[in-house]
Write the structure tokens for this entry.
Amino acid sequence: MSHLRSTVILPPTRNDVSRRSFLLGAAGLGAAGFGAAADPSGALITSAASVGATRRTYMNPVYHGSMPDPFVLEHKSVYYAFGTTGSARKPDGRCFTVLASTDLVEWRELGGALTPPSGFERGDYWAPEVAHHDGTFFMYYSVGGTATGASEGHQLRVATSREPQGPYRDAGVHLRDPASVFTIDPHPFRDVDGTWYLFYARDFLDSDQGFYPGTALVVDRLVSMTRLAGEPRVVLRARHPWTLFEANRRMSIYNDRVFPQWHTIEGAFVRRHRGKYYLFYSGSNFMTANYGVDYAVADKVSGAYSDRGAESGARVLRSVPNAVRGPGHHSIVTAPDGKSEYVVYHVWDQAMRVRQMCIDKLVWTKRGPRCQPTTTLQPRPLVQ
């Protein structure tokens, strides 16, 4: 599809809604879903960030359009944000919304990032993340859905560009995990020794060692930027009730098997802090108020990870009653001052029609990393 849909599709209200079926509607919103159309001149898109705020403050959301799963890359003092588009396409026919900013607050839209590869023209495109290595930008993403002939399965792929904003071209590589037909949310991470790793989420059907069946996290080493070592290591599985996605979930991808409890841990993001590796992740059903961000900690990037969350819910980001719903699937970026860290995440608008991009400061406390979602005027990120 090479144009925006002209009608707004409300999210389903059934309890058995799937992520795939919802994104077919919500991520394919028309002008009301994507916000203002991209300005060819590169003019800033109007948002709450610039309405009623001074140059010293901002207010969430910083982007009113559809921007699920926002990932932000800083390159040469410019921030580039990439967001999920699902089955929708931007006006240029590409997938993944691309935004640009110099301060994390005022954003302009640059169109789409990825030209859909042959055979996946009608697929669902989720959660892009970009790594820069040796002059090339590598975009890791997942694609799947019934339109690709893969039931509801998703696979990890990689695309390349010489420019951070794209356009990206698929490299013709399926980053395969032989243990799963559903792999999503790739997160590239470069360790201090220069070795690259890819964290991602895949399905687990067993309940061994007391874990819940569901989507959880693994890591594999990147032999090259387009090839995995083929040695995936499980780093985090669901063990707390708050990560429940759906009870009595029937999964067509697994021959209509019904799981009494299906849990979800997804959206990995790794940050090294004071010699420790913090694996941030989002958990629970992305449509509910339970969805939020938690973390685990390890001495080395491949684990083992401890401090794997709390019984009571997400500790880093969580919903605020009557104000913030479902904050999550985030990235973390350093502000223009080169010191302060900000969490970039999505939240639902009040009508539950679109997920919008927000930013708030990451604070390292004695109890661990914390981020308080805000809806009022806040000090802008500092500059040098």
About this structure: The first helix runs from residue 19 to 26.
